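Dear Dr. L.,

I hope this message finds you well. Following up on our conversation about the binding site, I have prepared a predicted three-dimensional model of the protein together with adenosine-5'-diphosphate. For your records, I am including the exact sequence and ligand specification that went into the calculation, followed by the structure tokens. Please feel free to forward this to your student if that is useful.
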Amino acid sequence: MSEPTSYRILFAASEAYPLIKTGGLGDVAGSLPRALLGLKQDVRLILPAYADVQARAGRLRTVAEFTLRHHAVRLLAGNLPGTRVPVWLVDCPELFDRPGNPYLEPEGNPWPDNALRYTLFAEAVVQVAGDQLGLDWQPDVVHCNDWQTGLIPALLARQVPRPATVFTIHNLAYQGMFPYQTFQDLGLSPELWHPDALEYHGQLSFIKGGLVFADQINTVSPSYAREIQTPKFGYGLDGLLRHRHAALSGILNGIDTKEWNPGTDSFLAETYNRRSLADKAVNKSALQHNLGLDTDPDTLLIGFVGRLVDQKGVDILLDGMKEILSLPVQLAMLGSGEAQFEAALLKTAEQYPKRVAVKIGYSESLAHQIEAGADVFLMPSRFEPCGLNQLYSMRYGTPPVVRSVGGLADTVIDATEANLSAKTTTGFAFRGDQGSDLYKALARASRLYQDKAKWKSIQLTGMGHDFSWQNSAQEYLILYKAAIREIPTA
Ligand code: ADP
Ligand code: GLC
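The resulting structure of the complex is given below.
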């Protein structure tokens, strides 16, 4: 059989940078489609038209008007800003025309109608996938991402003919669970209320739509693909994932190498590359100055950017804080999340104003400045499907200090004696989940930091790695091919 040179791919996601982003999913949905386009694929991105997305999208055309669940819906067409990736936006003002975080009300609770919002989004995607809106385009494969898109494979599975479906798990901890009443209120087909469908112990589980019905499932690193098949990391879904293991794989995320490039990054005090690595120091002193830290070039500056939630191991850091601060180090942190973690970190910053700086909030510019200005980048995650910040930090000559799980274990090469002699080290990895385990890793980093030649070699090794989408986007093409093979021919 001859291979099609190009697939038509409908990439469905609930966020995509630079239109809207709350975390790594936004980065991936903003960069993988572009990489696929670079591989000459006919890829289109489809997202809900949240208020911020409409504001940032530039010129949009209305390409279809229809009604779903008694709501007037428009499909708007444009491009992902700064790229040639075509974007379709599902515009249903009653459900999506809300500013700020796409999933949460301003008070921080999930929008009470999230189940309806992402059901309507899924139904709109199904209409596009079936070319029912007169767009004269039909995908070979619909690529779904996380629970917000979980119903799409479930709804498509009932159609003949249909496109193939791929479901990517970016984070199994978020499952889109709702009471049975919601299932009834949504009026979904009664056949879907079954343990082999959307029911999960008496509740409605959106993610199960993807896990049960997608032709191929993948997650964002090979290690996480193995881990989620165990009770420890499976969040109650490990049995189902073991059952589907033949269709489950892991593909490491790539990064947007234009967005995250220390040589051209306009957020930095001074750009630098492998040849001008000494200029990185300018970013360190600017960061120390801006955050009110002592501007000492020789103190190891530890950076952190991320959601302040259990996943990211904030409690491990807090547990080890006292011991860690007995080392000659400073800490620069940016993030937001659980109130208890925010409060505990702010308290530490108050106690050590010249050594610990904590910014609560979201800032694209400060995130880049920490990647560039810090000496090491901290990710003590309890679990990490892939993690992007450690990839950014290696590219910025800022060796990551990571807990050896998931994508962190797959991407960071620890400074063991053997790796140091072979010059393959790119960072520091530790096992265990006590503050003292993290402390020991940071103590190793702090000692090595004194050896300028060895340190530079670690930086250059990380900076020399190729973290682009090139390889992983090719792996997605193989996955699409496998998914297409699964569809029954009508
Ligand atoms: P996750 O998706 O679990 O949050 P990742 O490491 O995959 O973790 O991706 C997180 C992304 O979100 C990175 O691009 C990171 O820089 C960004 N990010 C997280 N928190 C913040 C913040 N407070 N301000 C700016 N960017 C942030
Ligand atoms: C998730 C994960 C993170 C991953 C990102 C993008 O939010 O927590 O590890 O890098 O998705 O795939």
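In brief: Residues 470-486 form the longest helix (17 residues).

With kind regards,
A. P.
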